[in-house]
Amino acid sequence: MDPEKCEGHARCYGLVPELFDVDDYGLSTVVGDGTVPVALEVKARLAIANCPEYAIEEIAD
Ligand code: SF4
Question: Choosing a second label site near 54 at 20 to 30 A (CA), which of 39, 43, 44, 46?
Fold first, then answer.
């Protein structure tokens, strides 16, 4: 995700707390190195689709 674009709605954290953390202002950071376990891929895409700032993107490996 791009911290320059994040405006702190914390939607990603609300949807997938396994993948995102938020600070006191609701600004998001990625948990760990950002690797998404297979079991969380659907929820990760949900977070991408629900970020109003388009701050989250999937990077193909
Ligand atoms: S949903 Fe998007 S804008 Fe909101 S906290 Fe998450 S990354 Fe930031």
Answer: 39
Give distance in angstroms: CA of 27 to centre of ligand 1.
7
What pLDDT does residue 28 have?
96
Residue 1 CA: nearest ligand 1 atom is 7
In total, how many domains does the chain have? Answer: 1
Q: Which residues contact 61 (CB under 8 A, 6 or more apart)?
A: none
The letter for the amino acid at 22 is: V
pTM of the model: 0.89
Please tell me the distance from the alpha carbon of residue 46 to that of residue 24, in angstroms, as a whole number: 23
28 lines ligand 1 (CB under 6 A): yes
Arithmetic mean of pLDDT, 11-18: 97
44 Cβ inside 6 Å of ligand 1: no
